[in-house]
Amino acid sequence: MVELIDGSENVSVHGIFNWILLLTIFSVIVVIGNYIGYKHPIADSLIGMAILSLITLVGVWMERELPLNISSIIYISVIGIALAFPSMPTSDAIIHYVSQIELLSIVTVFLAYVGIGMGKSWGEFKAMGPRAIIITVLVIASTYLGSAVVAHVILTLTGVSV
Questions:
Q1: pLDDT tens across 69-98, in order?
Q2: Are the CB atoms for 40 and 34 separated by under 8 Å?
Q3: Number of C-beta neighbours around residue 39 at 10 A
Q4: Residues 114, 134: one domain?
Q5: Same-domain check for residues 51 and 105
Q6: How far apart are CA 7 and CA 155, in angstroms?
Q7: In a 10 Å sphere around its CB, with 0-12 CB exposed, 13-18 middle and 19+ buried, how is residue 157 labelled?
Q8: Using CA atoms, how far apart are residues 128 and 59, in angstroms rounded to an integer?
Q9: I need a labelling partner for 153 at 20 to 30 A (CA). Which of 1, 29, 97, 121 fits?
Q10: How far is CA 162 from the centre of its chain?
Q11: What's the confidence (pLDDT) of residue 2?
Q12: What is the chain's mean pLDDT, rounded?
């Protein structure tokens, strides 16, 4: 099976095409789920996913092309924050369209993709034994708990009642 995402450090036309193809498929599935599950308008959801996909492409490109040793998730986060920052002229449009995408729609599609990816290496996962399962559950639970604590603290400090 051909790998859809090229993990090489160099950005090639083939690698960019694969990323665009993957993000397009991902976006269409998210938009359909977003419409069926949450009744958000398809046009607004498509624009929101196009914005998220473009930010993702730029972040991946920056990770591979810039001489810094920074993960693409950091680039993606900084770009998204910068574009949605209240004093930016892009803020209103970015926030409007991206808010049309429900997080659960994205997470559902992403976890399905991860599940398919894990299915390809299920033998390797089983070979790690029960400790790997325990560690996986602890990492996921800790990440969730840590995110909830940070969100609670930030909401409390900003005066939002929780």
A1: 999 999 999 999 999 999 999 999 999 999
A2: yes
A3: 7
A4: no
A5: yes
A6: 38
A7: exposed
A8: 32
A9: 97
A10: 26
A11: 44
A12: 87
Domain assignment of residue 149, given as a range: 128-162
Q: pTM of the prediction?
A: 0.72
Q: What torsion do the CA atoms of 40, 103, 7, 65 make, to the nearest 10 degrees?
A: 80
Structure tokens at 109: 């599609």
pLDDT on residue 10:
60
Report the pLDDT averaged over residues 37-60. 96
59 Cα distance to chain centroid: 11
80 CA to centre of own chain: 11
Does the structure show a pLDDT above 70 at 33? yes
Q: How many CB atoms lie within 10 A of CB 18?
A: 16
Distance CA 117, CA 110 (A): 11
Tally the domains of the chain.
2
